[in-house]
From TrEMBL:
The chain crosses the membrane at residues 21-40, 84-102, 114-135, 156-175, 187-206, 235-257, 269-288, 300-320, 326-354, 375-395, 415-438. This is MFS transporter. It comes from the Bacteria. The keyword Cytoplasm does not apply. One of its GO terms (cellular component) is plasma membrane. Keywords: Membrane, Transmembrane, Transmembrane helix. The keyword Transmembrane helix applies. PANTHER family: MAJOR FACILITATOR SUPERFAMILY (MFS) PROFILE DOMAIN-CONTAINING PROTEIN, MAJOR FACILITATOR SUPERFAMILY DOMAIN-CONTAINING PROTEIN.
Amino acid sequence: MSSKKTHSVGLGSQMMYGMGEFFNGGAFVIINSFFTVFLIKAMGMPAALAGMIPLIGHIWDAVTDPIMGNITDRTTSRFGAKRFYILIGSFATALTFIVLWIPSPVHSGGAMFAFYVLMYCLFSTGSTILMVPYNGLLPDMIDDYALRSRFSNVRMIWSTIGSMVCGLVPTFIITDTTAASNYMRCAVLFGLLFLITTLVTFAGTWENQKEPVHTNLRDSFVQSASVFRSRSFRLFIGIYLTGQCGMDFVSGMAVYYVQDVLNGYDNHYFTYLMAVLLVSQLAGMLVWGPVMARTSKRTTILIGAPIRIICTLGLIPFSYEGANIIPILVLAAGIGIGNAATLTSIFAIMADMADVDELITSVHRPGIVSGMATFARKISSGLSAGVIGLLLSLVGYDEKLASAGARQSAATNTGISVIFILMPVVLVALLFLFGYLFPMKQKEFNVIQRENRRRRGEDSSVTTEEEKKICEKVTGIPYQKLWHT
């Protein structure tokens, strides 16, 4: 069952495809910036426990994401399997995002912790239903390397728009970080926005019908683990985790940095910081997309990562109460521009991983591949939140002082500065290393697609020795074992 129709691939189609990223780019900014703040300052939960909740929720994703990837590849629908689940997921994510911020009906420490673990697992499941098929949609929409890059770049622009809106608007709603009702008003507003934008993506995309993959659900975990046989996918996961975790630490620690270190939350410094970060990131997307198209999907990583490192380290002499906000905002602009470069590459590379996987396995299974990529993104968010909570406890963060609106100790504020600056630097340095090692550019991509066509009987040309070496370099597997692994 294979059918292809002619579809418009202009800016309108790119915009409607990319709009689905508004949720992914925005929801996690709100969660990373405010969920542990909500738990600690509004609910009075200890920082270490609050940080564990997203991590536990994303451990749950280790079960749901592989299963969802398998379900997607096994499904047939007149809408297309992935678009069908995007439709369902649009409602699931909106509802579960809202319930995540319900004030706990119980007040004992253990019961409250269990309540929010359950709420977060529900949200993670809703996110899985939407994002696993969405991450696997582009390979079944577009075959061309450069065109995929353009669609991915527009997707990243929407991600940045989501981050901007979700990073700035809540600061005007959550004026008092100890008032639980502020968080709920914010959740209802954004739940509706997430619903609308994902429904537009469902309506404005298409899917080239493919034969469903005939695997059992019980094989989901074996199938998902098998994607790691690809050298390119392993390096991509390294790129994805370090790149996203680096920014998760920035967004997750920003409230603490502004409120406790700079003592500037009431002066709207947090709003200024997020505005500059996100506006510069959006501007960077407009620059780095064409650069990536003219060079390669790894080049912008190698440019953007050093910019992020230098600008982040530049914050060190300005991390104290009463510091001039102007140089901090200038450095934040540099961080946003560097982040735009790395983000542009990450999602463009993701779309190519199903082609490499097919060369290894002989099966076209973008759902399985995207399931593991989605899981990696959620794990990055969960690990960041868990580590932030643990590190805050280690530097002596006092949730009772926080709930009372009081300042933390000088030593604790120094520790917050160290976490906010050094953790992203370490992660982005690893991102640069993984980007340097990544083996695929357009030449390699074209060889992989051509070889897949040969093995499907759609191309009668003979593989050259150079092409065999490229296949081995990209997959990390001897040529004679490909398509049979």
